Amino acid sequence: MTAPGSIPAGSGARPRRPDPATCLYAARALRDFGDGFIAVLLAVYLTELGFSPLAIGVVATAALLGSSLTTLAIGLFAPPGVQRALLLAASGLMVATGLAFAVSASLPWLLFVAFVGTINPSAGNVSIFVPMEHALLAGSAAASHRTRLFAVYGLAGSIAASVGALAAGTPELLAGLGWARMDALRAMFYLYAALGVAGGLCYRLVPAAAPSAPEARSFALGPSKRIVLRLAALFSIDAFAGGFAVQSLLALWLFQRFDLSLAAAGTFFFGAGLLAALSYPAAAWLAGRIGLINTMVYTHIPSSLCLIAAAFAPDLRLALGFLLARAALSQMDVPTRSSYVMAVVTPAERAAAASVTSVPRGLASAASPAIAGAWMAAGNAAWPLVACGLLKIAYDLLLLWTFRHVKPPEEVRRQSSG
């Protein structure tokens, strides 16, 4: 006799679990939805608390620096097979971060929470979740499908982030219904905490992995160490440049330069996010024809030129046009970069490689928001955008020169068969 709802013995049927990649897509979408509205609201919230642009830049720096150090520790010292447990712990940290920002108005406390927590001023995939998710995704696909897998992963996050940016206008809607402005802003941080709970439920559906091969027990870098360190050095230039124009500071620039409303800013970042989302499948298609490195470089340089042009645009419409053009191109290097790193290292090195290439990016990007905030406070609002664009162009040229002959396996096979 069987219990109600149980599977009869000998039936051969097993409870069906969701596909692990689907669970990771859902978790990233929930997280990026939260990052999308937080990146727009963070500068507004801190301004309402009475903080200067310099202080806002320092909070962004603390967030990026803390995330980088935690990511490094996870990638280099966490034993293999614990990615699921670490993702669950990171979700709990996301909950605590949202609650802490909602209840505190003390700058020292907010700096501490930004450093140890998961707040993301860039609305990009820069967080302690990255190395675990990348390692799990790369291990679930053949080489020929790897870039497409990362493109879907990025697409899910980018669409969610764009919807999150649109949701940044919610406090104004709530204020119109009679809410106090600060209460409406704090409510969004409570929502951010709730998204951490939902993301943790998604990670619970991912099966725990255990290393079986002897080489899987080695989680540090091995034969691919040299190439990973060279990539990390170059990626840090790109990240340092990107820190001058993280979304929180870009929103602050739009507020100060053109007096853009919060609702209008949310709508703009929603549109920019959708354009970025559409670029992910386009990047996978283009990489299959011209290669991963070429796709990264030949789409990135025009996007940087658009950012520089936006800095000197005489009116809001032209500035937003350049920024939207930039959005359509600037993220095409994200899935291709992730795919390239996973392709040029051994499977046993993937988690460490994801961490080592992510951490210098985070450390480098942590320095520039404070500099950008100081420039903006001094009245030089265009300088951060110009610095970002010029440094990114330099990075692209160096990347092309250094790695143009280092091909991933699928490109080598394609050349051989051609």
**Tally of strands:** 0
Uncertain stretches: 1-13, 210-219
Based on the structure, what is the oligomeric state of the protein chains?
single chain
Task: Report on the biggest sheet.
Answer: none
Q: CATH fold name, please?
A: Growth Hormone, Chain: A
Q: Say which CATH homologous superfamily is assigned.
A: MFS general substrate transporter like domains
If you had to describe this structure to a student in words, what would you say it looks like?
By secondary structure, this protein is mainly α. The protein has one domain (20-209, 220-406): MFS general substrate transporter like domains (Growth Hormone, Chain: A). It is 75% helix and 0% strand. It contains 17 helices and no strands. The chain has helices at residues 20-48, 53-77, 83-103, 107-116, 130-138, 143-167, 170-176, 181-204, 225-242, 247-258, 262-290, 292-311, 316-330, 333-343, 350-377, 383-403, 409-417. Helix 11 packs antiparallel against helix 12 (292-311). It is globular.
Task: Please write out the topology.
Blueprint (H helix, E strand, L loop, with lengths): L19 H29 L4 H25 L5 H21 L3 H10 L13 H9 L4 H25 L2 H7 L4 H24 L20 H18 L4 H12 L3 H29 L1 H20 L4 H15 L2 H11 L6 H28 L5 H21 L5 H9 L1
Give me a quick take on this structure.
It contains 17 helices and no strands.
